[in-house]
Amino acid sequence: MAKERIVYIDFMKGLCILLVVSFHIHSTALSKHVNDILQQFRIPMYFFLSGLFFKTYNGFGDFVRKKVNNIIIPMVFFLLIGTVYIFGRSMLMTHMNITAALHKMPLNPIDNNTPMWFLLVLFEVNIMYYLLQQYLPRLWTNIVAIGLSVIGYIVVYNGYNLVLYFDIALVALPYFILGSEAKQHGLLTRGPSLAVRLAMVVGVFVLLWFLASEINMKHRVYPDYLRLYLLPAVSIFALLFVCQYIKRPVPVISYIGRYSLIVLGTHYFLIGPLKILILKLLTAPFSFTHYLIVLVCVIAFELPIIHLLKKYLPRLTAQKEFLLEGWRLSWQHEDKTNY
């Protein structure tokens, strides 16, 4: 029997993916100050929400299998789509010259579908947290995680990037643990009084207005260490406590939140063509109006894409398991049951 979904979490995930899509459409469509405020939520909240649903399953092997199903297989699938898309575009740009098209292909496979860096980092964060909480007491897990985040911060501060974005995973780890701790303390189903929630929202708004600064994890742009964590933390909790009043799915936003992985993996291929089309139709320099139209069009296209992918390719988009227990492929299991 399917588990009952937490309605407001889907809404929060929907807000997250909307912020990601809108930023990728045009990073300067909004003022830098507004962008800095929104960046306190965009990626940190994604890691926080992932941490909310951390489970150890039936040991390390089963845990890894689950994460391969839910993160790595979709990542590889969307990267393959990106590779085909980029190669096709390069072929058109080079007048079907295969050699020239290959030279235009990115050296880093992640660059074939840039948002996939997040899935790789999320996988690394999950593995790190699993190992920490398995072998260390809860308090020491959190202390060591903070120490690892300091290392990741120092590495970037000194101008170094670790392989496979591992330095970003170190920096992201506290956001993930914050989500896990929130769940363990029962904050998914309860929170402070209404008066405290309202005061918190007002206080966070003031803090964001005066203290928000750029957080761009992909490009390793961080504020000072305390601001990197404290401001996103209080902002996320304020939003969490407000969203807990949402009792029914919000049309479109809750839906794309529920299938945010699919939106994350496919929106990049829609933005470029839609921006070109909208600019040609409106025949004017890119403006905030263009930005809103492209955003609405991307989400409108995502709705049938979600439907098609979850219906016809559920095992490649984390809707069903690709690897079953014992690391059998799902199609092998189905073949056996058919005889």
Mean pLDDT: 91
Helix and strand content put the structural class at mainly alpha
Q: Number of helical runs?
A: 14
The poorly predicted ranges are 335-339
Shape: globular
Instruction: State the total count of DSSP E strands.
Output: 0
Radius of gyration over alpha carbons?
A: 21 Å
User: Separation of termini?
Assistant: 25 Å
Largest sheet: none
Helix content: 55-70%
Order of helices and strands: HHHHHHHHHHHHHH
Strand composition percent: under 5%
What topology emerges from the helices and strands here?
Layout: H1 7-25, H2 32-38, H3 42-52, H4 60-93, H5 98-104, H6 116-135, H7 138-157, H8 166-184, H9 194-211, H10 225-243, H11 253-258, H12 260-282, H13 288-312, H14 330-337
Helix pairs in contact: 1-3, 1-12, 1-13, 3-8, 4-5, 4-6, 4-12, 6-7, 6-8, 7-8, 9-10, 12-13
Task: Walk me through what this model shows.
The protein is mainly alpha-helical and 339 residues long. The chain has helices at 7-25, 32-38, 42-52, 60-93, 98-104, 116-135, 138-157, 166-184, 194-211, 225-243, 253-258, 260-282, 288-312, 330-337. Helix 12 packs across helix 13. The model is unreliable at 335-339 (pLDDT under 50).
Gist of the model:
This protein is mainly α and 339 residues long. The chain is 70% helix and 0% strand.
